[in-house]
Each structure stands twice: as structure tokens, then as C-alpha cells.
Amino acid sequence: GAERRHARLFTSSGDAQWRLRRRGEGRLWADAAALWSTASGAAAVAAAAPWDAMDHWEEARCGAVAALYETLLCADALDLDSKDSDDHESSTRVDACLSALRRASYALLSSPALVKPAVVGFDSAVADVEAVEAAALDAPSDSDDEDSEDSLTARVPRGEKLADRAALREPLAEKLLRKEKDVSTVSPVSSKQKDVSTLLCWALFLKHLGGLDGSASGKNQASARERLAYFARDADAVSEIMRLALRWLPMPSSSAALESLPSAWRDAAQASMDAGRDGAGGGGAAVAAAAADSLSPAFLFSSSKFGLGGSTSARSTRAIAHRARRRSSRRFFERLALGAYRACLSALPALTRTWFSDLKDTKLAKALETATSAAISPFLLEREFDAVERAARGAYSGFSFGEHDADSTGTLTVKVSRNAREISATYSVEDANVQLLIKLPKAYPLVAAELTTGNRAGVSEQRARKWSLAVGAILRHQNGAVAAGLATWRANVDREFAGVEPCPICYLVIHGANHQLPRLRCGQCRNKFHNACLYKWFTSSSKSTCPLCQTPWGASYRG
């Protein structure tokens, strides 16, 4: 990787010469990719930690992660479909080697020991990533300075500063933020390989994001997750990922049965079932099945036997090898596309729902919903139900919304009906109570949950409706679990009964994303708003007036 970096930067033909020097290494990198794609192989490499020595190797002039990105992206110009080459055998061997080298690089970068340094840390050494990330998290964020009206216009600019705010690794940020949509000057094959490389980079981002704990029990991880989620939102990540994924994502014809879906969908479902069986039983099985890693190299590259271009010159043998490479590459492309889509649903459900609701192709939307409800949603639904039940027992991520919470004003009683895919949440305080019914659709989280108000006593219809809208907003627009959404709602209701007025825009006391109280007060009507809610109102309405009294913000006509 370091050799390619120097060759590419300092000579115009250096990259091409570097690729030619790799043509005899195909079997080596294919075997390395196969080894590093296994759990034992990744563990052995992690124990040896060769990147520490690489990061201190001055002659290399680049760190271990930067070198691995060079080899990850080395296949951008390869042509697995080419038949019109002056030296077909040599070209085939080079292409097969670069493809194997890309797989080996992804296997290392996506391993548990390296996936975080592969995503965050700017250009630091692997050993310094924790300190670099901590410094980035200490920097002001979008939710800081909540009391300042000037912060309403101090938003994160687009482009490279997005990556700086999230502390992204430099080669990763460069790839993710580069929109390679103008392919007029490159061949279709080259464009395809660049799309694959970009999707692999997004896969690394999603793997790291999905592994972060967004709960209150892991505040540092929650803060890191929030920064990355902001980057994904502002970089329009899901739209870009799905633009790439839909190039290869196979769609079902009509049947909603799992066994009738294309093989990539069936393989992903089987991986979840296998992970569930390996879980610790009960909640362990539900969490393990939902967390099955469809972006792991073991899933992406299994049964992918890329040909290495043998020495035979028989035309029929070359044709057979060519067809085998095409089948193998197509299987990999389909699994990568499906893995990226599944990771978006799991790590960025709110952004994925927004993308899905904006789809203009109704046929595609129906096919995607059908396949999702059969192959992905059952495992994610079971995780939601399991999390809600554990939170009711006080055993979910360090908090409870049941009677075990000593700091609460009232109690929240929650019941789960798996057959009806329904969750009933009843908040009770003194002589008042209100019931919310949350119906999760078959294609959840691709399709939003449905909320209705059930039985109530001592609570006005207007307040009950406001609470229903608040929970709906939390579940639709935040990337947390249903259990976390109910906990946020419970905390808001507790604050309301303690006399704190909610934000008139979102109907919440505690903001669902940054957990801040309403602090910006209108000088005329004296209502308080969340900073984030008020900024969204200003930008969406193209006005700078109070949302309630319509007085120009900052003005007051009080005597």
C-alpha cells in the first residue's frame, strides 16, 4: 500500500506499473483474504498488531491504515469483464490479484481491532485514535451553546468540515464525500469498480456506527455515535448508499415468501438465523440475530472463488473462467449491496425511512418492502420487542421505565404482543393515566410505526394527543430503539408533571436528539423553544418569526 501511494503520487505511470508488479501475487492475496475473513484469522492478526510497527516505520512515509486504504482502492481501474486485451492472460492475472488484494484489505480494515481506526482518527497512528477522537468529541457540537441565538446560524458547513466534525479518517472522508456521478470520461467498468470501492468505504462507516452504543450508559459512545449520525444526515449518506446499492440489489418478482426471494436475501436471513442460534438464548438470541453482520468479509466473500487466470491458453477454458469470474463477482456485488442496505436499516433507520418515503418508483418501493418484511424485519422486530421487555424489567442498557425507577414522578407499564406486533405503554401518576398503543408494521423499520391513544383518565384529549405526537416524532425521526423512545417520552412526561413546559414545536420537554431543555424564549409571547426545533422552523419556513405569535424573532412589543 505504501509502495502504491508513492508510485501514484510521484509518477504519472506509477500506478499502472505498480499493478503490473502484482500480477504474480494473486494466490497469495486470495489466501490471505480467506484467512483474514475468519474470526480466528482476524484474532491472530489483532494479537500480532503489525500496524503498530508500520505506523513507526519512517521509510514507509504513511501509516498502516493509509496503506490499507491504498490497497482497498487499488481495484478501481480493474476490468473483470474485459475480453479485448493485448495480453489477456496477464490482464486477467492482474485483475484477479487486485480483486483479491481489495478483499484482503477490507477483511483487515473491517476486523474488530481495526474498524474504529479505519473510520475515525484523521491521519493518526492506530495507537493514537482514542486520544484524537476524544479531542474531537470535546469540540463544540451542533447542540452546544443552546442559550445563544447566534448558534441558530452556526451550523456545520458541508464538504470537508463535515468529516472534520466527525473526526473521519482522511482517505475515507475523501471517498465518501466525492460524488463520482459524472462518468462521461471513464469506462462503464471503471465506474462500476469505483462504485464498489465507495460502497466498501460506506460499509466500514456503517460497521463502526452500528457497533457504537447510543444509550445513556455509554456517554462517550453515544456522543461519537451522534457525531457520525450528523455526518450521515448532512452528507445524505443513505441516498448515496442506496444509489450505489440499487445497481446490484436483486429484487423479488412478486412472492413475499422467504424461499422465493433472490439468493442474497435468503443468505442474509440464514445468517441472522445462524447468529440467533449461537446467541445465549432469550434476549441474547434476539440481539445476536438482529446484529448478524451482513457486511462481514465472511458473508461478503464466502463462496466467491475469483479465478486467478491460469496459464492455459485454450479459448474454451478462458471462456469458462471468464463466466466463473462474472458469477463470483455478481454474487459479491449483490451481497455487498444487500449488506449495505441492511446496515442502513439497523444503524440509520430514520434516514432510511425518509429515503424510502421519497421514492418515486412505486414498483421498486413495493418490491423492497416485500423483501425487507420477509428477510430482515422479523429479526429487527424481535430485537425491539426483546429490548422493550427487558427495559420493563429494568435490565436494558442501564435504565428502566418500570416501577424500579426511583427518580420518576409516575410509573410506566409496558406490555408486548408479538402476534399483533403491538406495544402498549401506560403512564400513571396519582389519579391520572394515559395509554399509548404502538403498532410496528411488518416491514419495520423501513415503514414507520403507527401510534394511537388508548384508555385515558385525568388527562385531557389535547395533552394525550400531544404526547402521542411526541412519541411518534421520536420513533420516526430518531435512530434509537423503541425502548429508548419510550424512555425519552417517560422522562418528558415526568418533567411536564414537575411543571416544565414542553417545546411548542416538538411537544417535548427534553429534545429527542440532543437531550436539551427548551431555552430560547420569544420576547413577545414568552414561550420557550429548543434551539434545534427553532432552527428547523426558520429554515423550513424561510421566516425568522416566532412559530406561535409570528412576531419577528428578537422583537418585543410589550409595554
Q: What does this protein structure show overall?
A:
This protein has 24 helices and 6 strands. With 559 residues, the protein is of the alpha+beta class. The strands form 2 sheets. It has a 4-stranded antiparallel sheet with strand order 1-2-3-4. It has a two-stranded antiparallel sheet with strand order 5-6. A hairpin with a 2-residue loop joins strand 2 and strand 3. It starts with a helix and ends in an 18-residue tail after the last helix. Mean pLDDT is 78; it is low at 80-85, 142-159, 181-187 and 304-313.
Summarize the structure.
By secondary structure, this protein is α+β, with helices and mostly antiparallel strands.
Molecular shape: globular
Helix content: 40-55%
Which stretches of 5+ consecutive residues score pLDDT under 50? 80-85, 142-159, 181-187, 304-313
Largest sheet: 4 strands, antiparallel
Secondary structure elements and their pairing?
Elements: H1 2-10, H2 14-21, H3 26-36, H4 39-48, H5 50-55, H6 64-72, H7 88-109, H8 115-119, H9 129-138, H10 160-166, H11 170-176, H12 188-210, H13 219-234, H14 237-245, H15 263-278, H16 283-290, H17 297-301, H18 315-347, H19 349-357, H20 362-375, H21 377-392, E1 411-417, E2 422-429, E3 432-439, E4 450-457, H22 461-477, H23 482-497, E5 520-521, E6 528-529, H24 531-541
Antiparallel strand pairs: 1-2, 2-3, 3-4, 5-6
Helix pairs in contact: 1-2, 1-6, 3-7, 6-7, 10-13, 12-14, 12-18, 14-18, 15-16, 16-21, 18-19, 22-23
